[in-house]
Amino acid sequence: MPLSEVDTPALLIDLDAFERNLTRMADLVRAAGVRLRAHAKTHKSPDIARKQLALGAVGVCCQKVSEAEVMVAGGIGDVLVSNEVAGPRKLERLAALARQARLLVCTDDLTNIDALAAAAARFAVRLEVLVEIDVGGNRCGVLPGAAAVDLARAIAARPGLRFAGLQAYHGRAQHIRGHGERKAEIDKAIAATRATVAALNAVGLACDIVGGAGTGSFEMEAASGVYNELQAGSYVFMDADYARVLAADGAPISTFEHALFVRAGVMSRPAEGRVVLDAGLKALAFDSGMPAVHGLAGVSYGRPSDEHGVLDMAGANAPLGLGDTVLLIPGHCDPTVNLHDWFVGVRGLGRAEAFVECVWPVSARGALF
Amino acid sequence: MPLSEVDTPALLIDLDAFERNLTRMADLVRAAGVRLRAHAKTHKSPDIARKQLALGAVGVCCQKVSEAEVMVAGGIGDVLVSNEVAGPRKLERLAALARQARLLVCTDDLTNIDALAAAAARFAVRLEVLVEIDVGGNRCGVLPGAAAVDLARAIAARPGLRFAGLQAYHGRAQHIRGHGERKAEIDKAIAATRATVAALNAVGLACDIVGGAGTGSFEMEAASGVYNELQAGSYVFMDADYARVLAADGAPISTFEHALFVRAGVMSRPAEGRVVLDAGLKALAFDSGMPAVHGLAGVSYGRPSDEHGVLDMAGANAPLGLGDTVLLIPGHCDPTVNLHDWFVGVRGLGRAEAFVECVWPVSARGALF
């Protein structure tokens, strides 16, 4: 099926760029001597997760039990819920899932450890538990050091639980633009993590997993000598926001390529210099800013409403007509993917003979629980 | 099933408030002597649309053909796609749907009128077409007056098409905070619409439908003597943004009640004054600002990420523990609904004996085409 027959708006994967991104990350982590546990919250797709595992990833991360359920059902045998799980229903689903696959989860609270142990006992499984430490994100996680040791001891003391290591992810730092500022934040995270690992070792607790890192910083954690499992996810697609993050040479990070696009169509051209697209709040996420317009110099997207976006054509080289299409690079890939039911995998995107090679469901779309 | 058994995050309807909203709007439009064609983009649910029709609404509006397909499949017999439809696939689906129900659509372009006529001919149906005029939104729509008359004549001249009137919706004005400024914008829209109706009448073209208006302004259009079909949608649920729109007395508009909530759960309480909820970018839309925290003075929601939101508890009267729940009023109801698969209808929300009375699918969730 030629790309021209795909109706708009549609979520496209440039399969050529996507495959290069997968291979490049696999090469980088192999060279660094660390493991990749790719974050599946980016793609929400067991089809893509299986490709990551085939290239050497040891498993995936998820943020919700319902995402983990989709991954296990899709054949992924090693899943870390890189997040706290609270409430009896979710804990029981987590424990039930541990009968089918290796299941790991994070905690930052003593009462939560008791609840995890109760769920593990009820389902006669062993849950592997990471202690999440707050390395600068100010979101979840206990303070590094003694507080983490206390929780690790509590985990190790519970039958049905196994202390598996540390979760030390600094999400906010991933998007810091300047390389120097980003490195300073990550260096602090590395130091706090190193000290916590040492404090655990001092009481006889080993960390099989020291996990964290994202697409904006993973080379720093990889070189730290402390982190051994990287949790990058966005590298498979990249997005407009990551294109604003700078490398050491001051240029945008170019390790990975844009591989995710929303193809939108022109539905109205009511006035000079104004073109209205059929993709707005329901087709793109805007938490990290406007989408970039791919390959059309002088054209910018703005003023999204539910089903519309307005292109400012003031600087355009050529007009757009009704039914013409444009490729938009989402501001933030993860929540954009969550708005769509399908990925349309395109071979040769940008060439006249581009065609649809595959369609993958966004299997964990809407997995909130 | 008691509300306490509903896992988080979940999209709740307060059925008592919701039913009062439906009845109140039905009473207001009846008293004003105008019709209600409720906008289904708010709820995306034929279950709710049928309740609106049962209370007197003449039909519904949709923004996409795929939404219209869901409404017709759900038993709604009179649907206006209050938007332009471009591209051969969408036009053919629109024409095919006109075999099953009364179908109306908007246009603002002569080549689009030719395409509508071709689709109507191919499916041997008659499509009713409104000319959209730009009454201040600067989005779609031709200028009021002569440009609209030209399009109306073109519609009337095409076999298979019927000129049905004007679409004159001023979306941006709905959310203008001050009553005076809002009224000034709507008065301009009313004047432009009145002049266009007169210009059409002068060439022998009658407007069966003069449609527009939303929840923020509908009483103004209802009293205009020109608009005869109101397209309000958000009134069924209301949202945090509409609560910031002021009535003539300077107080927030109180015609309708908040009836839509995201119930979120506490998943982490890692530091003094900070509580982390399990509802973020995947559970709530943020294009119109943060959600309001219902019934908890001194507590505010902020810093959303995909699966987290942080409550600032600095001014709270009481702590929240792991697994406790809070009710969030979404900033913008329409795109929030689009993130969920189900509405959980609750009777007696806010009382200890609150229970789940019904579960309705968000049938047109993700309807982008």
What does this structure look like?
The structure is a homodimer of 369-residue chains. With 369 residues, chain A is α/β, with parallel strands linked by helices. Chain A has two domains: 3-10 and 255-361, D-serine dehydratase-like domain (Lyase, Ornithine Decarboxylase, Chain A, domain 1, Beta Barrel), CATH 2.40.37; 34-238, Alanine racemase (TIM Barrel, Alpha-Beta Barrel), CATH 3.20.20.10. Chain A is built from nine helices and 17 strands. In chain A, the strands form two sheets. In chain A, strands 1, 10, 11, 12, 13, 14, 15, 16 and 17 form a nine-stranded mixed beta sheet that branches. In chain A, strands 2-3-4-5-6-7-8-9 form an eight-stranded parallel β-barrel, surrounded by six helices. In chain A, strand 8, helix 8 and strand 9 form a beta-alpha-beta unit. The longest helix of chain A is centred in the middle third of the chain and has 24 residues, at 179-202. Chain A is globular. The two termini of chain A are 36 Å apart. The model of chain A has no long low-confidence stretch (mean pLDDT 97).
